[in-house]
Amino acid sequence: MNIAIDVMGILDNTKKNKDTDSYTAAQLKTLLALDKQNKYFLLNLYDDILLKDLLQYSNNTNEYYFNTGKDHFLWSYPKLIGEIYQNFIMEHKIDLFFLTSSDNHNFPIKKSWFKNTNFKALYGIKTERTENLEETTRLTLKSISGITSRLQQMQKSSNNKKFDNIAFFTPLPPIESGISDYSVDIICQLAKHFSIDVFIDTGYTHNCLLPHNVNVYEHDNFHKRYKKYDKLIFQMGNNPFHKYMVEYIRKFHGVVVLHDCNLHDLLLTITYRDKINNYEKMLSYDYKDEVNELIWAIHDGKRHSDFIANGFVTNFADIVIVHSKWGKKQLLLKNIEANVEHINLYAQIPNYSFEESYKVKQSAKKKLQIDEQDIVIAAFGFLSESKRCMPSLHAIRSIIKEFPHTRMIYVGKIVDNLKEEFFSYTKQNNLQERVSLTGFTSLETFLLYIESADICLNLRFPYHGETSATLTRILMAGKCVIINDIGSFSEIPDDCCVKIPSPENMLLKEEEELIYKALKNLINSTKKRSELGLAARKYAEEELDLNKITQQYINVLSRPSKQRVLTNNILSQIKKQVKNIKDENILTLARTLAYTMQDIDILKNGKTAGI
Fold first, then answer.
1. Which of 280, 281, 510, 568 has the CB geometry, 3.0–4.6 Å to 506, for a possible disulfide?
2. Per-residue pLDDT reduced to its tens digit, 397-448
3. DSSP letter assigned to residue 378
């Protein structure tokens, strides 16, 4: 059993001398000495001192300190303190919570903080004052053994949960979008737990196989059905396929899954035929009084995409789900009160082990009519400037000269404004036999090309806050991949990939040289490719598995949405309190504040902000 103990009765800041010789402290010390079976978590919000010296506890006990500021001013914000207690209980799966003091009028503690957790006062366990601490402690332990665990309580609660109806807005195949494929897999998983109606744009018929309890409607059917839904989910991306969703988000709110943090292209699509002041109004959700300056910057040659815009959607969402820590940070910097959840993009675990991947690769090459001796380098998705199509092609030219058995395959369509440059370059340099462009492929063929690859490229710049579903598939397939060290891509562990710097401040020739050197090193080292691939597969299985991602979705959908307790107003007040505080104390105070904003799902996995 996991037992948390609030040490207020020992470290109460209202006492000049710490009450370490009190009967409560003696009882606690005896409890920790006798009980080696249960796990103990000492929660300290009062003084930055080590309790081990006072209580002499053993290895089944850990202590946790949260800085509440000078004179403990954070206790003036009980909702913040409540979040600490609740998140602490969630993170450590606390079954029983003890308080060590009856005098809590200075620190009002609410029983609502301890939902689904047994709540006791340590001083209240004993029935009479006695010098026989060991006897009292054994009575305490006997009473603990009869307590129902938190896990049993939560399972009982979940068994009584009603079956929710979900409205799910997304494009579906045959729409040529990675979000279409993503949504099909997520829907198939969620349909095991919820009844789902999918609302797509008008003008096409979907061609994907969905579970029996999933219905698909054109979106204009939603208004007559909206009252039946418990939750609304919108899969939002930065292209015209998602235009139809915007009015529903602004009117009905719901959960917005933000696949691209910058929706500026979508914004331009929406306002293209409207008056310019409507465009300015939409931008004001992100830039407020700075809109005029932004408009002038665009007139002076800045690209629209240089300015992140998503407020015309995210400001109306009850919950925003993003796929990276970078994306979450951007939204919280804009509005600390935003309800933002981080859920990684998923990848399905292949039906073969990493040890079998070489045979799978050779088989895929054979199916695709690729020479089994060729070293296959592959890049995936819509080929555009941001995918570094031309710099990689220039680097490949040098690679093919040095390694004639190299084959470069671009899997996907190329944007119109690069077609002439791309094909002219391949023709002028006689690369037609070694470089190929597939055009749009089915998902089955797409995955076959991933399996066939020896090395993958997944480069990005300019970066607009997107994540890459292709990258998650590459990692899960156990392939070594070269990426740019930028945005969400930087969050991939270094031992899973090769990272090259963002080309933001370098010449094109420098970028080509970096790509060339990275490719050359990998071609020359089969061992390095294997090590990267194995680490990538392990990371993907631990962090990107579709089943785990689905459970995170369920956790978000199954709890009521709520506003952050740490508001801009509270932050402004705290700023005044910390003017003369030392840097190290500000750091620990900042960690405490960050803890109030931890994702519940992250806490369940035992990953915190470093408290």
1. 510
2. 999 999 999 999 999 999 999 999 999 999 999 999 999 999 989 889 999 9
3. E
- Contacts of 497-505 with CB under 8 Å at 24 or more apart are 497/532, 497/536, 498/522, 498/532, 500/459, 502/461, 502/463, 503/388, 503/391, 503/461, 504/461
* CA dist., res. 82 & res. 11, Å (int): 19
CATH of domain 2-157: 3.40.50
C-alpha 471/C-alpha 169 separation (Å) is 24
606 conformational bin, left if phi > 0, alpha if psi -120 to 50, beta if neither = left
d(CA 522, CA 519): 5
List every span in the chain annotated with CATH 3.40.50.2000: 354-544
Domain 354-544 bears CATH identifier 3.40.50.2300: no
Q: Is 375 helix (H, G, I), strand (E, B) or coil?
A: strand
Q: Which residues contact 483 (CB under 8 A, 6 or more apart)?
A: 458, 459, 460, 471, 489, 492, 497, 498, 499, 500
Lowest-pLDDT choice from 258-262, 300-304, 344-348, 392-396 = 300-304
Q: What pLDDT, in 10s, does the model give residues 280-326?
A: 889 999 998 888 888 888 888 887 778 889 999 999 999 999 999 99
May I ask the CATH class of domain 165-342?
A: alpha beta
Segment 470-484 mean pLDDT: 97
Cis peptide upstream of residue 240 (ω within 30 degrees of 0): no
Cα 126 from Cα 457, distance rounded (Å): 66
Asked if residues 196 and 168 have their Cβ atoms less than 8 Å apart, the reply is: yes
